[in-house]
Q: What sequence folds into this?
């Protein structure tokens, strides 16, 4: 089970965008160059963040991506859902119904205990991610990194 | 991010094996027939459970798979790790070091705050799964299902 590396890119790009001066829109190519990432694939992640309402994109020669809401209103869960989708990692295919006794006794309206336990675990994971905002991440970043990004994105 | 369906198969097969009478060894083909699963692929999952010390396999015409330890000593985390491996779902590729200021200021010995938060969330998930044993799952199964499996695996 592996999360796509797009999640790491997406979180760091949201921070880079937040650090651009004067709320300026950043094109995918500039973010890709700044973080040494492949621009076409990064652009897909930025589009996904836009569809999820985390970024706003402006077209045109001076266009690019801005934050659609402040860092404290974006959680790691929001970013993970934007990039990875919202489907649960564990999906029960109801194999308990494949046996004769299963078909005879199981109430399909009551989820299998395995499915319930897997969902409880995923909920614990989601709750942790939902409790962490990009403002919390930002707060742990060295000021020189933030100042450097600001300068970098000024011209 | 998706868990392989082998996890669902593995958990239910451990239960089916536990329900076989007289601690008898079950070949992959019998388990596959009982749960209507493809035998060659199920056999791979059973081998993985054996490598993880959850099952013990005996070769030969009367051979097959037995539990290597009782249901209360097997957690959902054990089964997930046996099938999915133990790598974390989120893997930081250190993109914070790809910028000039990152290289200049970041202490690579201190993990990125994003990585730390992702790991905390995965720990919460693992902790839930480690708190749930197959004996807990067994306890929620209808007695007719258990009796049916026992009869099914008797001859
Ligand atoms: S039947 Fe799907 S997890 Fe049990
Ligand atoms: S550098 Fe990898 S998560 Fe931040």
A:
């Amino acid at each position: 089970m592996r999360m796509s590396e797009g999640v790491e890119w997406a979180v760091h790009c949201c921070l880079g965008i937040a650090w651009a001066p004067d709320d300026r829109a950043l094109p995918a190519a500039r973010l890709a160059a700044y973080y040494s990432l492949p621009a076409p694939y990064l652009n897909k992640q930025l589009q996904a963040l836009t569809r999820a309402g985390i970024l706003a994109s402006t077209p045109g020669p001076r266009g690019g991506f801005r934050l659609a809401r402040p860092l404290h209103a974006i959680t790691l869960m929001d970013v993970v859902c934007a990039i990875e989708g919202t489907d649960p990692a564990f999906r029960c295919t109801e194999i308990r119904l494949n046996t004769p006794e299963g078909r005879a006794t199981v109430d399909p309206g009551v989820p299998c205990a395995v499915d319930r336990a897997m969902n409880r675990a995923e909920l614990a994971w989601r709750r942790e991610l939902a409790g962490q905002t990009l403002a919390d991440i930002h707060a742990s970043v060295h000021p020189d990194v933030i100042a450097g990004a600001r300068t970098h994105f000024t011209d």
In short: Helices of chain B lie at 6-19, 28-35, 39-51, 76-84, 100-105, 113-130, 134-139, 143-152. The mean pLDDT of chain B is 94.
